[in-house]
Amino acid sequence: MYAERLFGGQSVPWSSKTPGRIHLMKGKGLRTRSLKKYIKTESEPVRKEAIMNILDRKKHALVLFGSPHSHGSTRMLLGSFLEVFRDCKDWLVEEMDLYAMNPHPCTGCGACAKKEACQFPDLDGFDKALRRSDLLIVAAPVYNASFPAPMKALLDRTQRYFEARFSLGKRPPVKKHREAALLLSMGREEDFPVEVCAYQLERAFSVMNTTLRGCAVWAGTDRGRENLGTAQQKARALALEILGEM
Fold first, then answer.
1. Three-state DSSP class for 14?
2. Domains of the chain, earliest start first
């Protein structure tokens, strides 16, 4: 599939198995012009060496965007969370649009209990991005007191990490540790859906070497933007808390 990768404000075409966007959050470190040596022209793809060079020098945040609305409530909450990164040292932020990816559902075939891989290759790109990430951000609306279908499908596919741990003896299945944040938007104001979503993540994270640090919720979106300001403050505060310890 075709995805647009963004580096330091420059846009170049990039072929990828996983749709998404990568952009550099500019701070005191690497500047846009220092990336030009990695880019031949704006009409040519960025070399893999350039990507690895950046990844080696920058902390990597991976965003799982689970809303079908690219500019809706979830996007606004995510934007407030990511604002904090612009005032800090450089971070590389990669976003994966789960509705565009449309993960294949887990079929319980048991293949991952025999080999450290999934029989469906559509999430191989996610696995690679996860393993190099320092921070995982899950941003999604609440559907029927839980995650939307694409996010739930991805969580079901984390069975590969359970099997790696308990069937194949990989300890830990994912070597690098990362922090995580949950950002939710929801029409009503109630605690149960937040508890359900957080519980699902914590179960999966238990074999992914990932720690859920907190959750920021924009509740009551059925009433418009009444609670937006409070939700944005919570998102920024959560980001500052996480960055302060990384």
1. strand
2. 2-24+46-244 (3.40.50.360)
